[in-house]
Design goal:
Layout (H helix, E strand, L loop, with lengths): L1 H24 L12 H4 L3 E9 L8 E12 L3 E10 L2 E12 L4 E8 L2 E11 L5 E9 L6 E12 L2 E9 L5 E11 L2
Antiparallel strand pairs: 1-2, 1-10, 2-3, 3-4, 4-5, 5-6, 6-7, 7-8, 8-9, 9-10
Length: about 190
């Protein structure tokens, strides 16, 4: 199995390199980051985070502390590696965020150690250039049914960001299920 994964990965890399070389010979210009990608630069680096979460609107808030390391790849993609603790267990999550110039939207993915589902988001940044709003499509792990959530992330200053996530409760009404603040590690 491991040998198959390595072989497939090597073939995909070779095909990608061959495609890029052929396009370069034809005068094809590789894409370059656009002004919308500049927004992602703010999040580069290592951050210390405090997150509060709850499973329902009538449940008490629980708190978790952790860290996140964000790397900007090629000026296009912010890759996030989050570590912490939730429900008394180690937590690990990985995300990607970029700007898709064809959709004219920011796009994101998220997976973590607390569930088997891939979350996919699309959103925009407001006119101030400080608040990103994203609609996230995933699966409700309690029911196994599709679930749509809403997330906002705000740049407070060069070393502080806040975010909130909202999801439908059992009654179908939206409630705030998570909120957090991240401080740049110095």
């Amino acid at each position: 199995m491991k040998r198959t994964i390595v072989t497939v990965s090597a073939l995909a890399l070779a095909a990608g390199l061959a495609w890029a070389a052929a396009r370069a010979q034809e005068g094809f210009q590789m894409p370059k980051p656009q002004k919308e990608h500049e927004f992602l630069k703010h999040f580069e680096g290592t951050w210390e985070a405090t997150t509060k979460f709850r499973m329902a609107a009538d449940q008490p808030w629980m708190e978790s502390k952790g860290s996140e390391t964000n790397t900007l790849i090629g000026g296009f993609w912010l890759v996030s590696d989050s570590k912490g603790e939730m429900f008394g267990q180690p937590f690990r999550g990985f995300g990607t965020t970029g700007y898709d110039p064809y959709k004219k939207k920011y796009v994101s993915t998220w997976v973590d150690s607390m569930g088997p589902c891939l979350s996919i988001g699309e959103g925009t940044v407001d006119a101030t250039g400080k608040i990103m709003s994203v609609q996230v499509n995933s699966t409700d792990c309690a029911t196994g049914k599709p679930c749509t959530m809403r997330m906002t992330q705000e740049i407070k200053d060069k070393d502080t960001t806040t975010w909130s996530m909202y999801m439908p409760g059992a009654d179908g009404k939206e409630f705030q299920c998570m909120t957090g603040e991240s401080k740049r590690k110095k």
